[in-house]
Every structure is written in C-alpha cells, then in structure tokens.
C-alpha cells in the first residue's frame, strides 16, 4: 500500500518527483469543460473567418488579408495552445520536458503573431484615414503579403531566441520531476510583447481619432455645391472610418484581455502554476482569440453572409467564389 507521502507525488516511483496539490473535483471539471469549450469555439469561428476571406474573391483586400493572418494565429491558439493549457492547469506536467518547451515555443509564436498583426492592422487604418489619397499605392496586396510573411518569420525567430537555452537542454530549470518551467527574461518579453506594440497601437489610433474628428467637422461645414461634388469621396471616408472603428474594437478587446496577465508579470508577483488566479488570467488572455470572430459577426455584414453560405453548403457551388458579398451590405 502506498504511503501518504507517495500518494501526493506526481510520479510516486521517482524520489525527485514534484508533489501534487489537490483541487476539488468539481473545480477541475469546470476548468476542463470551460477550456475545452473555448478551444472548440475558437477553432470553429476562426476557421469560418479563414474560409470566408480565402474563398470569396471580393474579400481579398489588404485589410482582410491582415484579418486573415490574425484569424490564423487565433485558429492555431485554439487548436494547439488551448488544449495543452488543460494539463498546464494541473500541478503536475506528464507530457515530458521536450513537449513542455515546444508548447511554449508555439505559444510565443502565436501570441507575438497576434499582437504584431494588431500593429499591422493599426498601420493599415492609420494610412487609410490619415493619407487616403495614397492608400491604394502604399497598401497593396503584395506589400501586405510581404509584411505578413515577415511577421511570422520574426515571431518564429523571436521564439527560438527567447527559448534557446530551454531547447538546448529541456527541463534544466525544473526544480523537481514533473514540472513545466521555462526561463524567459520577463522584462524583455513584456516590452516586446506588450508595452512596445500596444504603445504603437494606441498612438496610431489616437492619431486616427483626431483625423476622423477633423474630417467629420469638415464634412459638416461643406457648402452645398462642394457637398454634391465630393459625395463619392465622403462615402469612401465613411467606409474607412467604419472599418477603423471596428478594428479599433478588436484592438481594445485585445488590450483588455492581455493587460491583466502582463500587469501581474510586470509587478513581479509570482503566481503558482495551476492556481485559480493563474488559470483565470490565462483563460482571460486566450479568450481574446475566441472574441475576435464574434466582433466580426456584429460589425461585418459580409462575414455574417459568408457564414450563412458556408453553413448552408452554398460555398460548394461552382463560381461561388465570385459571389457579391457586398450587395446587401454597402458600407
């Protein structure tokens, strides 16, 4: 019969094993069900975004290509990162040291890809609002594709740079057998992963807000003759402003979801792996990947229409990729 001390070990047969911390079964079940549900919803919703933008030619715009890249990072978060978050909420890690490090490598890639995509989206809106006459020449599909590729290459490089020591010797920072601990320079992570990109986003959107307000005042002050002459231009500006407002909501939700996690990291307060506080902060951060498609549903009529075509399998019809997605949703 096992002794009480052996029963509390993650690996009773190993003397250097970490000790278990018991959690009420009801609490464990709630965490498992909640994370599994969020993971499934995140995968499904972001897959709808990916299929929509990839399939319908009319949606192949520079802005939507950035949304596509963001949806890919959110999809990968739901498919790979969130499911592994379930064993991480437990006090013991049973998947081995190498899998632990690879999990964090993928985690860093996806998190950094999300925030850099947010920066690119902010730049796109900044140029569209502040320099609309040269937007079509500055922001092209080719330039956006190059930026997206460079974004993902940079994230992969950064993840290996951050975790090189951990990859070279997995498990070297574990204090006992059954831990999943990595060594990252927290200050560098906070600056590159949150403070710098979020500051850039906030500055760009403040500039967009100032220009949008000045444009709105200028529109109201137009004389009747000029108003008739520039009606097309005004419509375009309204469309760009609406897109900026929608993507501004996406950025704001991102900041609200990740801010508590990075604030705790910045305060140097050490949260125990598997604690309720740690689980909540991680849940809040990853829920952002699920919320983005929900925002598109409320603000983008073309997304609602594309989802309807996908669910009803009309997307399988020949020439469905040429469907007019904006016919009933003129902005």
Automatic annotation (TrEMBL):
Residues 45-296 form the G-protein coupled receptors family 1 profile domain. PANTHER family: HISTAMINE RECEPTOR-RELATED G-PROTEIN COUPLED RECEPTOR, TRACE AMINE ASSOCIATED RECEPTOR 19P-RELATED. The chain crosses the membrane at residues 29-53, 65-86, 101-123, 144-164, 184-210, 247-267, 279-299. Pfam families: 7tm_1. The keyword Iron-sulfur does not apply. The lineage of its organism: Eukaryota, Metazoa, Chordata, Craniata, Vertebrata. The keyword tRNA-binding does not apply. Keywords: Cell membrane, G-protein coupled receptor, Membrane, Receptor, Transducer, Transmembrane, Transmembrane helix. GO terms for molecular function: trace-amine receptor activity. This is G-protein coupled receptors family 1 profile domain-containing protein. It is found in: Cell membrane. Coiled coil: none annotated. It is a multi-pass membrane protein. GO terms for cellular component: plasma membrane. Belongs to the G-protein coupled receptor 1 family.
């Amino acid at each position: 019969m096992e002794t009480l001390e052996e029963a509390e070990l993650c690996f009773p047969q190993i003397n250097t094993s970490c000790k278990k911390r018991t959690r009420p079964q009801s609490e464990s079940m709630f965490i498992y069900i909640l994370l599994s549900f969020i993971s499934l919803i995140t995968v499904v919703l972001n897959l709808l975004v990916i299929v929509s933008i990839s399939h319908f030619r009319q949606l192949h715009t520079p802005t939507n290509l950035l949304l596509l890249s963001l949806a890919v990072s959110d999809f990968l978060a739901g498919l790979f990162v969130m499911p592994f978050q379930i064993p991480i909420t437990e006090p013991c890690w049973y998947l081995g040291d190498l899998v632990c490090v690879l999990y964090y490598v993928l985690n860093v890639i996806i998190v950094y890809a999300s925030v850099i995509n947010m920066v690119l989206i902010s730049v796109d809106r900044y140029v569209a609002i502040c320099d609309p006459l040269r937007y079509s020449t500055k922001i092209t599909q080719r330039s956006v594709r190059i930026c997206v590729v460079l974004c993902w290459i940079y994230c992969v490089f950064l993840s290996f740079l951050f975790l090189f020591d951990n990859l070279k010797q997995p498990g070297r920072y574990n204090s006992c057998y059954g831990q999943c601990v990595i060594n990252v320079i927290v200050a560098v992570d906070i600056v590159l992963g949150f403070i710098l990109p979020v500051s850039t986003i906030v500055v760009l959107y403040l500039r967009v807000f100032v220009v949008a307000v000045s444009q709105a005042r200028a529109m109201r002050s137009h004389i009747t003759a000029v108003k008739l002459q520039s009606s097309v231009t005004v419509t375009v500006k309204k469309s760009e402003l609406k897109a900026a407002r929608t993507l501004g909501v996406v950025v704001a939700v991102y900041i609200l979801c990740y801010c508590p996690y990075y604030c705790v990291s910045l305060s140097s307060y050490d949260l125990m792996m598997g604690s309720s506080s740690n689980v909540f902060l991680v849940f809040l951060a990853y829920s952002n990947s699920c919320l983005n498609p929900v925002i598109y549903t409320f603000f983008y009529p073309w997304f609602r229409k594309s989802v309807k075509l996908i669910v009803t399998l009309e997307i399988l019809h020949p020439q469905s990729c040429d469907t007019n997605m904006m016919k009933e949703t003129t902005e």
